[in-house]
Structures are given as C-alpha cells and as structure tokens.
Amino acid sequence: MKTIMVQLPDELERRLRELSNRQRRPLEETAAEILRRRLMLDRFHDLCRESEALAEAAGYRSEDELLRDVS
What we know:
By secondary structure, the chain is mainly α. It is built from 3 helices and no strands. The protein has one domain (about 10-70). It has helices spanning about 10-25, 25-55, 65-70. The longest helix has about 30 residues, at about 25-55. The termini are far apart.
C-alpha cells in the first residue's frame, strides 16, 4: 500500500473530518473510500461513452432501439 500526501482547502478538510466522525471511521479510510468511488464513477462514464460509440457503429440510432434488442 502506498502513502500519498494531499493538501486540502480548510472547508474540504472540515467536511471530510465531519463525514469520518459520523461514520466512525478513520480519516484515511474515509478519504480512500471517497477516492475509490470517484474513480469507479469516472470508469463507469468512460465505459458509457465507449458503449455509445459501439452502439452507434453497430447502427443503433437511439437508446430505445438498443434496449429493444437486448431486452
């Protein structure tokens, strides 16, 4: 496991501490979970864009057409 240092604006640090306290989790664990979720969301959006391009290349003109064929 790697350690990184991140500088946060005061307001963001305060909110992170509040969330960590509410969840009764270590600050580092809370920050890592937030980062993990954000990276998963970014990957999901990347996959959506790739899927849209593939669907368009396959001749689908709308999401409804695609859903009709995969349902």
